Amino acid sequence: MKFTNKLLAIVLLSTIISPLSNLSSFAQDRSEDRKVELNKISCREMLKMPGKDKELTLVFFHGLMVAKNNQMVIDRVVLREATDKITDYCIDNPNIMLMEAFDRYL
């Protein structure tokens, strides 16, 4: 459980720090942009994200699913394969919610 908490803390910290690297976008932050409903992020939205944002989103969702499934061991090869399957599924089904794609392959 400690590993999962550390993993989630790292992912959340990365998610918080990432926008700070671009101060102009941080300065323009509006209150409606600060909250994200995870179950409403579509595959299309994830696929349109810039590289770093897409990467962080995928890492975050993997961490979320690991915690949800109470996993203590992560097989990096299986994780990489799941990411490829989720990405392919999203390409084929852009209107599906990203959470549904993760539920399907993890």
In short:
This protein is an all-alpha fold and 106 residues long. The protein has helices at 2-17, 23-27, 43-48, 51-68, 76-92, 98-105.
Structure write-up:
This protein is mostly helical. The protein has one domain (2-28, 40-105). The chain is built from six helices and no strands. It has helices spanning 2-17, 23-27, 43-48, 51-68, 76-92, 98-105. Helix 1 runs antiparallel to helix 4 and helix 5 (76-92) packs across helix 6 (98-105). The longest helix is centred in the middle third of the chain and has 18 residues, at 51-68. It is globular, with a radius of gyration of 14 Å. The two termini are 18 Å apart. Mean pLDDT is 82; it is low at 20-27.
Main sheet specs = none
Rough outline: globular
**Cα-atom Rg, whole angstroms?**
14 Å
* Count of all domains: 1
Q: Taking all residues together, what is the mean pLDDT?
A: 82
Give me the number of helical elements.
6
- Share of helix among residues? 55-70%
Produce the secondary structure layout:
Elements: H1 2-17, H2 23-27, H3 43-48, H4 51-68, H5 76-92, H6 98-105
Helix pairs in contact: 1-4, 5-6
Structure characteristics:
mainly alpha, 66% helix, 106 residues
